[in-house]
């Protein structure tokens, strides 16, 4: 029986145009822009300067901080700028601009690894040096995620293969086409965490992915594939844990506090690819879709490739009403296509007006629909109202920091109130106030 969680919504899947399309490698662009922040945590410092020649796979940004992860050159060529550039997070971020020389000359550090020759500590150090972060969108450095809490232990690694966001099918294709890599990456994570049991949660509408993964693990008994109900946000960490493991993460705690590490299936595949080839994290699969896209699909692209370059290859039938980085529920709207793909970019959606109707916000009618669908059991409407009025103490009291910004409340609201946006702003203001002391 497909497992699930309490709450959530059922938006139209809209995956029919891309779910069966094999992954296609896009041409490498003439110029890449490598943001020095592609992870949760401290922004990296540049390790190169304008005029330097860099090699493919060379580390070009890093910082000595507990929560940080280096970035690498995704092409060989000449550094033409180190400057602030637009990022998919909606802000400007210090970035390194590289003009591609199209030789793909490898840096000497690009060397394959043998997992059997590495200890758990070796794996953790290597994961950091390879720049591996969560590729489901969060971008948390993987080596840091594998550290147990003080006095605690880990017992389970859980991979998220739900991919419950509408339109997005990149993870689906990764599981179908690179199932062996997903399993190798999972085993690498299990070794680093020192655990004996692994799980992969996959929604039941991805039958070919379920089949491919089951074939890849047979006859192993230490990894289980868990069929999940088709519901959003089935792939959120706490909801995935509840569905697959029947465990609850206490409020204010993280999965590691109950012995669980959650990673995305694409992260596991990236780990395996890096093991086999020696390449750091310099490319990823993204879904390009939306009614305005002439040639939708799932594409393997180098980190730093601009949305504009990708859309030029895929073609636009008309000017999009909305350009999104990520999915329609949690993605960020872009005001320009001059933004680069990062390690965390799961998709590019060029939506028509019919696909993204903007209802005029009305007064809250107290229907409690947002509360009914909230998978974190908080009060979205109250948090949004307090956040809009700058009453941050009340917003925090009612669970602003517990919200993981899935957008289910906004989707369910009959009054078209942008609840998630107000909650996101309240969280940002709360954190900013804490930093100011």
Short description:
It is built from 13 helices and 17 strands. It is α/β, with parallel strands linked by helices and 437 residues long.
General description of the model:
The structure is a single chain. With 437 residues, the chain is α/β, with parallel strands linked by helices. Among the domains are: 115-277, NADH-ubiquinone oxidoreductase 51kDa subunit (Rossmann fold), CATH 3.40.50.11540; 369-436, no CATH class. The protein is 28% helix and 19% strand. Strands 1-14-13-17-15-16 form a 6-stranded mixed beta sheet, with helices on both faces. α4 (179-193) crosses α5 (207-217). The model has no long low-confidence stretch (mean pLDDT 94).
Topology:
Layout: E1 24-25, E2 31-35, E3 45-46, E4 53-54, E5 59-62, E6 71-72, E7 77-86, E8 92-100, H1 120-129, H2 142-145, E9 156-161, H3 170-177, H4 179-193, E10 197-203, H5 207-217, E11 223-228, H6 237-245, E12 260-264, H7 265-277, E13 283-289, E14 297-302, H8 307-314, E15 322-325, E16 332-334, E17 347-351, H9 369-373, H10 380-388, H11 392-397, H12 408-412, H13 419-436
Parallel strand pairs: 1-14, 9-10, 9-12, 10-11, 13-17
Antiparallel strand pairs: 2-8, 3-5, 4-7, 5-6, 7-8, 13-14, 15-16, 15-17
Helix pairs in contact: 1-4, 3-5, 4-5, 4-7, 10-13
